[in-house]
Amino acid sequence: MEHLEAAHYADPLGYQAAAEGRGEAMFASRLDLITRHRAPGRLLDVGCGKGEFLSVARTRGWAVAGIEPSQGLCEHARAAYGLDVRLGTLETAGAEAAAFDAVTLNHVLEHVERPLELLRGARGLLKPDGLLFVEVPNCDSYLLRAADAYFRLRGLDWSSRLSPLHPPFHRFGFTVASLLHALRAAGLEPVELVTYSGKGRGYRGGRGLAAVMRGAAAALLDLLPNRELLAALARPLR
To answer: How far is it, in rounded angstroms, from Cα 96 to Cα 98?
Structure first.
């Protein structure tokens, strides 16, 4: 599976990170969440992809850096935005300990084999009063519940929660309760948790009728709580 995942994320033009339409507004909303609790300072985005989030953060006063395991995406972030992005993972990139005011994990935690280790590693990069931002799919959202109900009605033994055989290769799923538990187990104290719609992420949800139906369902379910994406902010426990 690793070689399939690497191929999926290797091409910056093929990888549909949120760079279309509402991407900038989405990144700004993430930064608004962070700055409610932490003034701009040094920010490290782990798994920074093509660098769009870091580019927006820089315009809002953050001194930004990134870590990205895909060489193609890493090179794109440097060339397109002039970003300081290290090729590698949190374990191999050699980021400075206790040096960052904010560390962000934007749709990274669900992809890794050892999410608790990643959270602990991210905690070690934070200043004592630093802030960790984590965003993951909300596996208990009404949208995914509706998708699973549709699969059952069609007699399909499918799950909307995980995708071990196709992009984006989610290895773990998180709910509000399980994400809070993971943060605390990693030595972090949650300070805010929100859910919101995934329709602004900019990923292409397919074509034809299926994409139209998914968009319509997302728009309706966005009116309800417990939405498609889950974001948490946490500080190191003292």
So the answer is: 7
Overall pTM surpassing 0.85 (yes/no): no
Express each pLDDT in 129-157 by its tens digit. 999 999 998 887 776 777 777 777 888 77
Where are the domains positioned within the chain? 2-236
At position 74, the amino acid (one-letter code) is C
DSSP β-ladder status, 126-137 and 188-196: unpaired
CATH node for 2-236: 3.40.50.150
Note the pLDDT tens digit of each residue in 30-62: 999 999 999 999 999 999 999 999 999 999 999
Alpha-helix residue ranges (DSSP H) falling in the chain: 2-10, 23-35, 52-59, 71-81, 115-125, 142-153, 176-185, 208-221
Q: End-to-end CA distance of the chain, in Å? A: 39
State the amino acid at position 179 in one-letter form. Answer: L
Taking a C-beta distance cutoff of 8 angstroms, is the pair 138, 173 a contact? no
Question: Coil, strand, or helix at residue 126?
Answer: strand
Pairwise CA distance, residues 124 & 184, whole Å: 14
Residue whose tokens read 């805010």: 192
The SS3 call for residue 2 is helix
